[in-house]
What does this fold into?
Amino acid sequence: MAVKERVGLVVSNKMDKTVVVAIENRSPHPKYGKIVVQTKKYKAHDQENKCNEGDRVRIRETRPLSRTKRWEVAEILTTK
It folds into this structure.
């Protein structure tokens, strides 16, 4: 099975070695056709605390690291 990867924006880095990444999903409404934006937040492991708020990052699914943390930062794409 392939490893899931997502690209999103860091919205919080206040925790130690953890960042919150917001992923936007843009899809048309099934009946009306208007593009609807849904945002989901994931907690991701950031080993070196390199990520800052506003950075665009790629996250990768991993084994459970805590009760809510199942992702890790694969790379920082752009910095703010």
